[in-house]
Amino acid sequence: MVSVHIRRDGRERLSSFFASGHAGWADDGEDVVCAAVSTILQSAWLGLSEVAGIDVAGVREKGELRLQWPEASRDDAAVCAIAATAARSLERIAAQYPTHVAIVHERE
What we know:
The protein has helices spanning 32-51, 77-96; strands spanning 2-8, 14-20, 57-61, 64-68, 101-107. The protein has a five-stranded mixed beta sheet, with helices on one face. By secondary structure, the protein is α+β, with helices and mostly antiparallel strands. The chain has two helices and five strands; from the N terminus they run E-E-H-E-E-H-E.
């Protein structure tokens, strides 16, 4: 199962995503559920860094992806839109594949 942690800061602003594990929907390299989660997170990273122009801290390794954006950027409209779209997309994937993707909402 892929576990996706969606974190908000003390002001309820999205602040980071962390995903680990494998969905187990199909064999490695053929798992569309893992691919969907990875694509959403990779797109969020790209959008935050190249569209919103902010520094994203994170780790990309096999079976783990972690990204966090600076507190000073969390009120920016582009940052909010990109992060909220990614969070909602991840929640939709989890709703479609509840035995393969788990969403954990956290607070800093």
